[in-house]
Design goal:
Largest sheet of chain A: none
CATH architecture of chain B: Orthogonal Bundle
Helix content of chain A: over 70%
Number of helices of chain A: 15
Distance between the termini of chain A: 64 Å
Radius of gyration of chain B: 19 Å
Order of helices and strands of chain A: HHHHHHHHHHHHHHH
Oligomer: heterodimer
Low-confidence stretches of chain B: none
């Protein structure tokens, strides 16, 4: 119907003035990384421990930040490294959360075993949905991830006997961590547990991202056709990356279930997927530490805005999101530095 | 059995038409202008709220409140486009997502602060509230208005895009903005006007669909997914595709509400996944 005298959109999106000679220069190639992969993990552990020691009233917030960071880290592997835009990442988080909770309720309440079950559930759902999803690209992929997440959420709502549906799944008590450290009411154990899990997750993600496999996935992100021509099995690599990300997201879900002692349908919701994506873009995608920064900033912002005014915290969050796009942080810093430099 | 079938078909058609009317604007901005506007659901919400407040608080007649609500939504859309959104057309998709979702959050908070968290009801005129006898069954006149409005919007949009000078300008501005501008087409006016019309239509969908999709502050995000699904399944930028997708998915959703309500939206999203798996670029890609 829209056919007519117009040219095709394909020729319109590529300006004709830019010939094929404008190739990316070889200097753009990813240089070998020098920092050892355990360093950033140790930094996270140190910051987490310091915060745990210095702010004993904010342990719940610290736990939430660590869990959100682990979840956004997993999202970064999919969005930032593999270049697959997803708005259905909550499905993997929720799968881990429900699996860990059901395992604690019906089989065994050991936290580390439950964490392993959550990891397995996230990876399983990721591999099953990945087999279907990676056949598609771009906006279609995005919408299919939404569909998968909504289907999982509908199934969770239907399986009331297993998930508790709208009431949420409660009634499980975790055994002490490593048989020793009980989960106390102030959340001291929970916070350290979450921070430690985040550090391990960051180490794993760093190793994955910098491995030859990770570089191949980055290559697929930049140019799918060229990687395929080089002999990389594109879909298999993407499924593998999606599965690894699913394992991390499942871990985050399991942590959330264990530390909160409740799992609700909101852990599968579109809002959670969207919030995680917002955190990732806020911190910067594709660099892993951006995921941590974004999760910390967003969760702190959410917390502060909600404590200032519990009804209108969305004002603050929405305003900050818009401001970040209009005035990018690096440009704001440059302006501030210039102003301060001019004065002295 | 036959009554059930006709119920499903008529209600499904009404639901699909509401989805289509809201989706028209997004089909144009997302499908044609490649601008990811996640705040589109907020326009539907604002239109609905304006109509609800005018009819209930100010006691206006529905027939007066409806055009005023649409004009207000269009003005807000045009203002936003002219002041900020146009600077984002050339930014990356992720930045557009971040900004428009921030805008949606902001508008949700604003509606919550101004009108409160409760569900808003639009006072319908007696003409629309009464049932109409169709011979084989009776149904609310409002349902018929929705279906008629959907058909009118579809026909008008098709005619404008394919036949009028504005439609030619729009297609030219979308396909090659620089060339279009060189040829003297006022592309800024065209972009702003299409955005405003899209916002107004979303507002119309919000007013007409208020019975099917209750108006509350989180409306903007809640039903955004459904509208995105319609655009994706219909094919980016294809109005006919959006109409087909909206009708098909609306019928599926209504049928599952009648027959298998405890499954939630499972069948809606299953149908969407199957349709997209079958035609990854949408039913009718431009």
């Amino acid at each position: 119907m829209n056919e007519g005298t117009t040219t095709s959109p394909a020729s319109a999106t590529q300006p004709l003035a830019q010939p094929a000679t404008a190739r990316p220069s070889p200097a753009d190639a990813v240089a070998p990384r020098v920092a050892p992969p355990w360093r950033s993990a140790l930094v996270v552990l140190a910051i987490g421990a310091a915060a745990w020691w210095a702010l004993p009233e904010q342990l719940g917030l610290l736990t939430r930040i660590a869990i959100a960071a682990l979840f956004v880290l997993s999202l970064d592997l999919v969005v930032g490294i593999a270049g697959l835009p997803t708005l259905g990442h909550a499905a993997l988080f929720g799968a881990g959360a429900y699996a860990a909770a059901i395992f604690a309720l019906r089989v065994h309440a050991d936290p580390l075993l439950g964490l392993a079950v959550g990891v397995g559930a996230g990876a399983l759902l990721a591999v099953l949905s990945g087999l279907f999803l990676v056949r598609y690209q771009g906006f279609t992929f995005l919408m299919l991830t939404v569909a998968v997440a909504q289907i999982v959420a509908s199934l969770a709502q239907k399986a009331r006997d297993w998930t508790g549906a709208d009431d949420g799944l409660t009634g499980f008590t975790m055994q002490p961590l490593l048989g020793r450290f009980a989960f106390d009411l102030e959340g001291r154990t929970a916070a350290l547990y979450a921070v430690a899990a985040l550090a391990v997750g960051l180490y794993v993600a760093r190793r994955i991202a910098d491995s030859p496999f990770g570089l191949a996935v980055r290559g697929i992100h930049e140019n799918r056709a060229r990687m395929a021509a080089l002999g990389t099995p594109v879909r298999r690599r993407l499924i593998a990356m999606y599965t690894l990300a699913g394992a991390l997201a499942g871990a985050a879900g399991a942590l959330s279930a264990q530390t909160n002692a409740i799992v609700g349908l909101d852990s599968l919701s579109f809002a959670l997927s969207a919030e995680a994506l917002v955190m990732l873009i806020l911190g910067g995608a594709g660099r892993l530490y951006g995921a941590l920064v974004g999760a910390a900033v967003f969760t702190l912002l959410h917390h502060t805005a909600a404590s200032i005014n519990p009804y209108h915290w969305l004002f603050v969050v929405g305003g900050v999101l818009m401001a970040v796009v209009i005035v990018p942080p690096d440009r704001a810093w440059a302006w501030l530095r210039r102003r301060l430099g001019g004065r002295t | 059995m036959l009554t059930l079938l006709s119920n499903v078909l008529i209600d499904g058609m009404a639901y699909g038409m509401v989805l289509f009317i809201i989706a028209v604007g997004l089909t144009v901005t997302l499908g044609l202008m490649r601008f990811v506007n996640l705040a589109h659901g907020a326009f539907a919400m604002i239109g609905g709220y304006a109509a609800a407040l005018l009819t209930r608080e100010a006691q206006w007649s529905f027939w007066l409140a409806l055009p005023v609500a649409l004009v207000a939504t269009a003005a807000l859309g045009a203002l936003l486009e002219a002041v900020v959104l146009r600077h984002l057309y050339r930014r990356s998709e992720l930045e557009q997502v971040l900004f428009t979702i921030g805008l949606a959050f902001f508008l949700i908070a604003a509606t919550n602060a101004l009108a409160g968290p409760q569900v808003q009801l639009i006072v319908l005129p007696p003409l629309l509230a009464q049932p109409v006898d169709l011979g084989f069954r009776t149904l609310p006149a409002q349902r018929l208005l929705v279906i008629a409005a959907g058909l009118v919007v579809a026909a008008a949009a098709a005619w404008i895009v394919a036949r009028t000078r504005f439609g030619i300008w729009l297609r030219a501005a979308v396909d090659h903005p620089d060339t279009a501008a060189t040829l003297g087409i006022p592309i800024r006016t065209v972009q702003c006007a299409s955005f405003a019309v899209g916002a107004a239509l979303a507002g119309l969908g919000g007013v007409l669909g208020a019975e099917l999709m209750p108006l509350e502050p989180y409306y903007a995000l809640k039903y955004l997914v459904l509208v995105l699904v319609v655009v994706a399944v219909g094919g980016m930028g294809s109005l006919v595709g959006s109409l087909a997708a909206a009708l098909a998915l609306g019928t599926v959703e209504t049928a599952s509400k009648y027959l298998a309500s405890d499954w939630g939206s499972l069948f809606f999203f299953l149908a969407m996944a199957l349709l997209l798996a079958w035609r990854p670029n949408g039913l009718l890609r431009r």
